[in-house]
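Example is below:
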Amino acid sequence: MIRYGRQIVRPAFVGCLVLLLTVSRAAAQPSSYAVGAQDVITISVFSQPDLSGKFSVDADGVFTFPLIGRVKAGGLTLREVEAELREMLAQGYLKNPQVTVSVDQYRSQRVFVIGEVRNAGPYPLSGEMTLIEALARAGSTTDRAGAVVLVVRGPAGTNAPRLPDEASVTDALRVDLKELQGGSLSQNVRLRDGDTIFVPRAESVFLFGQVKTPGGYPIQGEMTVLQALSLAGGITDRGTTNRIRIIRIVGGKKQEIKVKLDDPVHPGDTLIVSERFF
């Protein structure tokens, strides 16, 4: 039976995502988040339950608060909204009011996750969200993902993903997926409103002949003939490592090359393992 690749959920990567997601959330500083239209914020006024609750920010960046009326929050950080409310409440309403503001629902800012992820689409930008959190929300990468993740900076407030070919080279950040999976915090890019996370599909190598599971398999970084054979389950009892050839397209022309186990494999190569003579 011929099949294309294998659908494998990487338990180690999923565990890594959960761990790094916890770390990134703990390290985030939501007080620096700028409130935007359609956000829902939670306001707590100490010892004043009638003044505490959830409030929706309208399209103009304003919400309505008891006693005060309309309060401008759009573009302000949470700490700035707190200071504004304290000042207003201290003007004849409360003595030394203690106010805490947090975000209940992030609706004004978003990032886009596209390509080889399990659940592509737009996701709300939650506080100081990182790449690992965005990938976790998108269900992590598929087994066909390539070795690099591109983070394309987009204009704030955009309603559509920005594809890499529309951006200049300096716009796209290249993140090593293997290092990210391994827990490298240096690869865990902090995201901005309008960013597009693009996970390209890995280029493939094709294996036929005397291999246990013929088909196409994604190349992950640099790969040798031996590593490619392992993707297909290895050589059958009737195959031989002395008669492996690669069909490769070079300059638009097909070439057939006899290779050894430690020779490199190129994207698009077709490996054929011949049957032994006896």
Remarks:
- The two ends are 25 Å apart (CA to CA).
- The chain has three domains: 34-105, 108-199, 204-275.
- The longest strand covers residues 239-250.
